[in-house]
Amino acid sequence: MNQSQIEDVLNSIVYALYAQGGQPGAGENRIGNLEVFDHPDAVDHIVKAPALFRKNFSMISALGYSRFNTNDENWAIRREITQDAYLAAARPARQNAVSEIYAASLSQSDASLAGIQKALFSASLTIFYGAFGLVPSIEPTLALIDRVRDVLRRLQYFSWVAPTVAERDRALHDARQVVIDFAAQLAAEPGGAAAMAHFAEKAKEIEGFSPVEEFVMNVFAGVETTVATVLWVIDRMGANEKVQQRLQDEIAAGGAATPYSDCIVNETMRYLPPIPFLVREVGAETSLDGRQLRPGQLILISVVGVHQHPAFWSDPKTFDASRKEFIEDSYDRRAFIPFLTGPRMCGGARLGRLEVKEAVRAVVRQFAFSRADNVIRFDYGLALRPAAGSSVGVARR
Question: In this structure, what are the phi and psi dihedrals at residue 385, rounded to the nearest 5 degrees?
Fold first, then answer.
């Protein structure tokens, strides 16, 4: 097993979902041994019945437990630890502060895709940590985030491809070690120990609760998906000069209302959802979409398929920066779920939307982009981001 093998296997899952999305004969859709559900009606039923369709993250849970991979009362307690902080950080009064953080970080960036990516991660980390009264040490924290992503990719790979004993042991060791190192980093930062003590106090009913595991999974999920979305917007702007110019003109005109930029962000999340699929475990015998499901069976929710269903979108397999369903606000909410929906909807959705909006505005004000081609190349590792080595060219305005 090497990095290339991991990338090939994980990316092939997402490519398969793009190939299947919106095709007739949905009842025959499978990825490996998993039944795939991609009709918005069926998926809406699944995500709104969390007691029947439970979260199951297989080996990914080796990195720890959090609100993202627990169920029932355990999940409810964990949700309360972070939810108030997310909502407070997303208040409209915070918009200017978020805008200034992204603008300042990008102003110090190299005029390169790698430099912009690092600046976006730095800004998103600053905002996330700030929601909990913390100030991150950027360089070591970014290094830890990279390690978390590497571990998660391997654990996800081993959820699909059985590891050898040595591979499993190494992955588990690396997962525990990155949590230990994250704990040490948090303890060294002002307020870090107090924040983790606050987490632990709110979760005192959960036996064996680890505040660092909770924090690590939250920070990775929040930061990775936000930055990935902005990078995809950059990728799509580089592929279409007219789209980029229209977006620049609208943002340069000022004002809070930017319908075209909102449309582009939505279309980016529709076409390239940050979380392209989810796995659920069936809790009791049931039937759905004409298929019989048994207790313990794993099923796959294709967000890609939901977002490309032809009964809900016009020309769904085309990226349309002026998509009428978004411009006219006429889309069916069941068919657009970048943050999921129902009781397990992403708790940081408001903050994520605010960050992406302000990050895109800051990026467009400071940079111009070009692309040598319009080929979409992605790199999937729990979240979907553009592949390294993209052909996007960057220039400062």
Answer: -130, 165
pTM of the full predicted structure?
A: 0.94
Q: Is the dihedral of CA 328, 90, 274, 261 positive or negative?
A: positive
What pairing do the DSSP bridges indicate for beta strands 291-293 and 286-288? Answer: antiparallel
Structure tokens at 186: 């948090």
- Give the Cα separation of 307 and 59 in Å (integer): 27
> Could you say which DSSP state residue 134 is in?
-
pLDDT in tens, 194-206: 999 999 999 999 9
| DSSP code at position 162 | P
378-381 and 277-282 strand pairing: unpaired
Distance linking the first and last C-alpha atoms of the chain? 44
Phi, psi for 278 (deg, rounded to 5): -135, 155
Q: Which residue matches tokens 């997402």?
A: 14
**Rounded Cα gap, residues 44 and 363, in angstroms:** 34
3-state secondary structure of 294: coil
Specify the pairing of strand 34-37 against strand 298-302: parallel
